[in-house]
Specification:
This protein has 125 residues and is mainly α. Helix content is 62%, strand content 0%.
Length: 125
């Protein structure tokens, strides 16, 4: 098997990033907390070592240009639809918690009864 040179790997990584940028709309690009490109997530997605962004100048320039185009257009992140995702309020969660605590209490008392019956015999006085 032939070893690929570091330079060839870098060129391939730049090509992957360029191709991804051309097919991905700005509103679908992963963002960091500051609104810029989440470089680590993009690198992991494209199988690029995140540490090479600092050493590969062409990758860095592509990410910088992507940050600039996002900032200039003001593109917002589009969230995927939340189909089937339930949104709970504090009250509903609190009521559910109380219900589960009551069920646990009943089950604990039944368990204690069975432990008593197992330890002292099956007949209760």
């Amino acid at each position: 098997m032939r070893q690929i040179s570091s330079q060839a790997k870098g060129i391939a990584q730049v090509a992957r990033l360029e191709a991804w940028i051309t097919v991905t709309p700005l509103d679908r690009i992963p963002r960091n907390q500051f609104g810029g490109v989440a470089r680590r997530r993009v690198c992991l997605l494209l199988e690029i070592s995140p540490s090479t962004v600092t050493s590969n100048q062409r990758l860095r320039k592509l990410f910088d240009a992507l940050d600039a185009s996002i900032a200039s257009t003001g593109a917002k992140v589009s969230e995927p639809p939340r189909h089937g995702v339930a949104i709970y309020t504090y009250e509903t969660l609190s009521a559910r918690c109380e219900q589960l605590e009551r069920e646990i209490s009943v089950l604990t008392s039944r368990l204690q009864m069975f432990e008593h019956m197992t330890t002292y015999g099956w007949s209760l006085p």
